Amino acid sequence: TLSSERDGTRVQYRRTDAALAIKVDALVDGVRPADTLYVWRETSAYNTWFPMVTASAELCEVSEADSILYIEMDQWFAYNDMAMRGWGCNCLKDGYLLMVVRPVTQADVP
Fold first, then answer.
1. Mean pLDDT for the stretch of residues 12-32
2. pLDDT (tens digit per residue) in 40-98
3. Where are the chain's structural domains?
4. Whole-structure pTM over 0.70, yes or no?
């Protein structure tokens, strides 16, 4: 389902009984794709960069382009925590990066 499309950014979502999938396609001028990847890799800093995040950690590095992360958001109105696995396709020399993030299953944990 298309949620929004403006200024070169397209957001879509799909809801199932078990999960909410969100897809964001965007071209960002003036930002190197490698910088986007660096943000993903600096999990321990999420609680200082994102006010809603109270704890975060990298649980497992499967490879240089594949990591399992944990994020906790403990706010006065709700508590949420999630484990995510993100992996990417390194096409940085061509000027783009593909990253896929999904919830972690037990089979993902080595």
1. 78
2. 778 888 888 888 889 999 988 888 778 889 999 888 888 888 888 888 776 777 777 77
3. 1-28, 31-105
4. no
Pick the CATH number of 31-105 from 3.40.50.720, 3.50.50.60, 3.30.720.120, 3.30.530.20: 3.30.530.20
Please tell me the distance from the alpha carbon of residue 15 to that of residue 23, in angstroms, as a whole number: 12
- pLDDT given for residue 90 in this prediction: 67
Q: Which two tokens stand for residue 83?
A: 């484990």
DSSP assignment of 33-92: HHHHHHHHH-GGGHHHHSTT--EEEEEEEEETTEEEEEEEEEETTEEEEEEEEEEEEEEG
Dihedral pair phi/psi, residue 57, rounded to 5°: -160, 150
67, 86 in Cβ contact below 8 A? yes
DSSP character at residue 107: G
Distance of alpha carbon 15 from alpha carbon 68, whole angstroms = 22
Q: Which two tokens stand for residue 29?
A: 């001028």
